[in-house]
Amino acid sequence: MAWGILSPDAVISQRRQQNLELGAAVRYFNDAAVPGLGGMWFAMPVVWSVVAVSIAEKLQQPALPVGNAIEALAMSQAKDGPIDRRVRGKRKLQGLTDWSFEKLRKRGTYVVQPIRMAMVQPLVALGFAQGSRYGAFQLHTAGKRMLELPIVEHYRDTLLAWANGKNPRGLSEVIAAISPTEDVRPEVRKLILARLIDGEDQASTRRRNLVSLGTGPSSQQLENTRPPPGVDDDHWRDLRGGAAFMEIRDAALSVLDRLEQRLLKLRDDNEAVRLSEEQAASAAEEEIEALGRLTDRLGDRVRGADEPVSKAFLAELASLDPPHLVRRLAERDGTVIRWHGDQLRLGAAAGELKRNDELGEEGIPPKDDVFAPQLFRLYNLHCLATELSGKANPGVTRHEGIA
What we know:
By secondary structure, the chain is mainly α. The chain is built from 17 helices and four strands. The strands form two sheets. A two-stranded antiparallel sheet has the order 1-2. The chain has a two-stranded antiparallel ribbon with strand order 3-4.
């Protein structure tokens, strides 16, 4: 599957998810690889969320609209700068003149997919918030510690006054300081880094061991059965199984991509837009063969991780002949390709901009193979840890200026 880089404001289909009923396996392998990271890859969103949850508690309002308002406000100056992965709302906020809290908290003012959507898991996993939904978050131990830092307390107090309809002294300076393109203060970085890699629980240990590697593991390294120094056998098994599963899943999606192209051409040629099982198997013959070869080569790695959803998927791939395989993939999809009336047809999301479920967590896999691109959190962790150590975030330098 080709990995694309979208501009932050790109209109992504909400219908074209194509998770093939494999969402539980995707979540398992992502979290086994880099526990608790969600889509976090740079540090400033933690500051926004801690401040937002604190303000929401004081206003006795849900944290979600408060979080949207503060994130939108943080974009107010950055939106006019160069294209940057960390900036949202360049088009949505263009021409906005009312930057009040009441305006920014309203649905529709800011983007549909704010950065805070990728922050639910890391805020909880790293101890900054507690709760199962962003809107119901309350500050937890690390969040309270962050608020004890004078600079963060100053951000909170100034933005609380703004949320109460005032124009407090120093507001412009605070907005500039919390811009997504600004560096997080050293004392804040230190706290986030400690929450990321300190601790003796399995999640902290896995993150710390990966950070200690410096780079990788790459796809080539994951071909090895023995882990590199510092990575334990169980973690290595999950990393190898996860990368293998994502490759097989993507190969299955390539079968559906080929069928979509065929059906769209039939539509463009004003022909009947449907395929029988046999016609579909013939149209995607090369992709089906590639899927079979990949499953034969990587299947043992997936089975070794002993994750039930992925194992069941492999069993289907091994047991079904090509006509029944394309039918089952269409049944699993239903968004782009669907099975209806004994034929394959286009789904409601056919022809729309492709969306990858993992990239909904803000994952942008690297272009090279220093980090296995199948597990986007590996590179995200590297970006975050590098920034928290006081160096330039490579996720910015790598992609800056790409729309």
